[in-house]
Queue: 4 jobs
Job 1
Amino acid sequence: MTASILPRPLALPDFPWDSLRPYRARAAQHPDGVVDLAVGAPVDPTPAVARDALAAASDAPGYPAAVGTHTLRAAIIDWMRRRRGVSGLGEDAVIPTIGSKESVALLPLQLGVRPGDLVLHPRAAYPTYDVGARIAGATPVPVDTDADPATWELPDDAPVALVWLNSPGNPDGHVLSTSQLARIVAWARRRGAVVASDECYAELAWAEPWAADGVPSLLDARASGTGPDGAPDPTGLLALYSLSKQSNLAGYRAALLAGDPALVGAVTEIRKHSGLLVPAPVQAVMVSVLADDEHVAAQREAYRARREALLAATAEAGLANDPASAAGLYLWLSGPEDMSALDLVGAFAELGIVVAPGDFYGGAGAGRVRMSLTGTDERVAAACSRLRATDLFRR
């Protein structure tokens, strides 16, 4: 009897957004149209600086380098120093990636995480951290990354291979301070684990001290520590960043990875063999937007205005945003105690508004919904008007 050559399916969860179809259908029946705030997909125009760079680089008949051009790597290094407070990076410590979701999903596999290993991630987390661990055959474990890692409850006999951080957090907007980051780094190094920090919302800080001082990076010397020469020590550390949010480049799939040169080199080798190459025109676009802070500031102010409007309207409707939500692209809302996450999603759908149930993001999301700021000014204003006129969230 011939053995089957069909692959065994991975034990992956259902794609969560597929379950929103009936709620989207209900919301679409609203006479003034749907307001879709479930997914953080940018709706504002891609900035002119990016489109001009794309046009200028459109003649690209050859294969791009997996490591990125020297010009791009220099731009990433300069941007990390200027905007993220990270110094001391060389060209061997940075590469472009095809969006950051790809890195989140594939990084455990690229780093050699094995079955039996543990991959830790925040309790309230983007589902792809869990999925990436499963792709590698490892075990995903949610932990409270806001807390001292000494309090994390983990199996004694299972090795921790990777610790995912997400600051500012999706969905909750929590920000980790340099002291919190340093504590996790020290804990992980004692265990021989890599720490990877997804920092794609770092330019969207709303509350102090982060709005004035900036959201700290894992690669900040205050978090990473320093080596014998006094330079920041990136050993065992990786930071991810995406240009999708700050520059409205979600359709370009433009992101970067930075940190320990040994880890970046290992990831790069797999990317070269796999053909995971950022297109040359996109690399040129990345150079242009990393050098231009003006469009980022303008986009941040657009999101700030939408956030303030939605905060006021949801509060008036009887909903509460997470008080620790200090940055990012979302509101993390709770309602009356007797309303589950899906109850809240259903109530929003009655208003023609689509939001994501907190259950998508783990057990910590029970009784919450995530509301994105990525609606046009007109659609956000429509959502605010409907929220002010409703009593669906009051008991």
Job 2
Amino acid sequence: MKVCYLGLGSNQQVPERQLRRAIKSIKSLPSTVITKISSFYWNKAWGLQGQQDFCNTVIEISTRLPPLQLLDACQKIEKKQGRVRKKHWGPRVIDIDILYYEDNNIRSKKLVIPHPQIQFRDFVLIPLMEINPNYELKES
């Protein structure tokens, strides 16, 4: 099993409910167990200003799914919850990002791990440090 960290965020359609729905769906992924869930944190939008605040959390999972298969599973969950990709950094019902996948470094058109610019995103850093205060950040 590989230890991974996922960042979840929402600012549409009762964001806390969207996070709970996504967590429930992640729990049902094959060969995957959620080991830790941070508190939910409310934050101002990052990147594209002038939209509703986001509710964010970070979860730690153990999985046997390879990175691209995990990405596909996360994107299916997003689609099932109504995510439509219209505007970069725009409002969204749910966003599930693979922040870290063990110590893997991946740079492809479809996936970059560690997730870009984590070190600048308090909405990721604060919940990540809550569930693993000794985690050593790695930059992409």
Job 3
Amino acid sequence: MKHEHPEAIAALPGKRMGAGVLFVDERDRALLVEPTYKDYWELPGGVVERGESPYAAAVREVREELGLTVSPGRLLVADWVPPGMYPTDGVMFVYDGGTLTAEQTSAICLQAEELRSWAWCDEVEAADRLPALLARRVMAAHRARGENVTLYLEDGRAIA
């Protein structure tokens, strides 16, 4: 089998990738975090580093940001995001973190240089704290979790 040249592969366009985790509480509210370096909230998670899988990035980011060591469940959504909020397009993954117990919740220890606070948010509160794109993604992830499906999104909107 003939392989492509490494130079040709290196010249291909790259995509930004991010991975997050949807945690819920016993009232089915989503856990959102407030970064110190942004003016909006988001799901726990972050950038997928070079050579790292999206799943591994989600696990690492939750450990770094919240001090929790978790093994998230299945993929809830994959969301292709066009340029706009950022200058390049990207792909964002959200995994199912399940329901956090009171013990797990009390063990949350924020990484102070990255996160200002966290909160359990219902749909209305999440919509108030998140930019429209992220609100659509979180609501889609919540829906996918409840329906036991995985959704493909573009700009936070489900594609049939």
Job 4
Amino acid sequence: MRYLQKFSLSSYIRKVGVLAIGAHPDDIELGCGASLARLAKQGVYITAVVMTSGKYGTNELIDRRQESYNALTILGCKKIIHFDFTDTQTYLQLNDMISTLENVIKHEIPHDVEIIRVYTMHDADRHQDHIAVYQASMVACRSIPQILGYETPSTWLSFMPQVFESVEEDNFNLKLSALSKHKSQSMRDYMRPERLRAVAQFRGQQVNSDLGEGFVIHKMIL
């Protein structure tokens, strides 16, 4: 938590908090799950916001919201908020998403918590919902000092991280445990533990670490 110390010292009366935003259930866990687990263990207050139900292309009887809640709880998220913006059509709801995120920041964060970082979608993602959530995040979170874009399978062709989190085995295992709660997505190739480990090993190797998660910088005030 070295890069959080400045904020915790300068605002010692308030808890340090981070906000994680995803377009669908499982986006947050895939992109920054191990990093959130690490921060939660260090006492950082984590708020997670999922913008859609993720039901497009999924059995209507499956409750992806419950899967998401169970998964994010494992990572140590203190507050978990789900919205029902229309899956695959969020680009038509951009203004409403901005207002909704602004409301979360203003009214849903405890008064004794200072959000100093946002984890959100990457701007070069090929999924239309991910792009829309990135755009909404950049506007709604404009007053937050740090905004990082995380890696998901739909960014793998173009993702070039500038910031890395060195991930310990226990935190990576919490990420795997969280993703295992998304049973509706278990058939997807990118959810296989060995594939997830390969990505973490590659990102770790880039910074001389065993395992890692990488992020692009959308905004960084030190």
